[in-house]
Write a structure and sequence with these properties.
By secondary structure, the protein is mainly alpha-helical. It is built from 2 helices and no strands. The two termini are 31 Å apart.
Length: 73
């Protein structure tokens, strides 16, 4: 017979940490997007900042998924 599992209690500090990491990486992604646009004429710098932007954007999505899944948002 199916036994429903109890949802484990998650400490608010874990949710808060994931939200803080999300905001940190989202801000860095925005910063590197601006740097990428500033250096549009220099292809080496442009792609360097594009790589940093997409790295931080992916980390932001990762942390958003963590606190959204935990918090139910």
């Amino acid at each position: 017979m199916y036994q429903p599992q109890q949802i484990p209690y998650v400490q608010p500090s874990i949710i808060q940490s994931a939200q803080q990491n999300y905001l940190h990486h989202a801000a860095l992604a925005d910063h590197y997007e601006r740097q990428r646009m500033i250096n549009a004429s220099n292809s080496i710098e442009y792609y360097h900042y594009a790589e940093l932007q997409y790295f931080h954007k992916s980390r932001a999505f990762f942390f958003k998924g963590q606190f959204s899944a935990i918090d139910g948002q």
